[in-house]
Amino acid sequence: MELGDRLRQRRKERGLIAAELARQAEISKGYLSEIESGQVSRPSGTVLFRVATALGTSIADLLDKEIQPESGRVNSGLLELAEMENLPEGDVQMLAQIRFRGDQPQTVEDWRFLYESIKRSIASGN
């Protein structure tokens, strides 16, 4: 199944019309239609993030990809945040791959700060 087909399927599962999903994802209805019809096969990461967020899913789900962290494990602070905030699995796996000088955040508060910072930087970059 292609990206556009998965996107349309998720939209219908959520009971959204294209115009509403486009509004929530802050893209034009025409652009959403082009993605769903396969005319646009590689939308930007920003657009995918917005659409996935509006659908309550992950980019990995829309792309039909399984993302595995390098170590295959998610530390307890990240797991706790994921459960508390009901984070999409793709977002958890993305965070689990982040390393700075070989280390990762350990506390729920540090993971929350990192996650919110990523969301804000993506939202403000549009």
Blueprint of the fold:
Layout: H1 3-13, H2 18-25, H3 29-37, H4 45-55, H5 59-63, H6 76-85, H7 89-96, H8 108-124
The helical percent reads 55-70%
Tell me the CATH topology of the largest domain. Answer: 434 Repressor (Amino-terminal Domain)
First-residue to last-residue Cα separation: 29 Å
Strand content is: under 5%
Integer tally of domains: 2
Q: What's the order of the H and E elements?
A: HHHHHHHH
User: How confident is the prediction overall: mean pLDDT?
Assistant: 85
Q: CATH-wise, what's the superfamily of the largest domain?
A: lambda repressor-like DNA-binding domains
Structural class: mainly alpha
Low-confidence parts: none
Q: What's the total count of β strands? A: 0
Shape: elongated
Indicate the CATH class of the largest domain: Mainly Alpha
> How would you characterize the largest beta sheet?
none
Enumerate how many helices there are, as a single number. Answer: 8
The radius of gyration is 16 Å
What's the CATH architecture of the largest domain?
Answer: Orthogonal Bundle
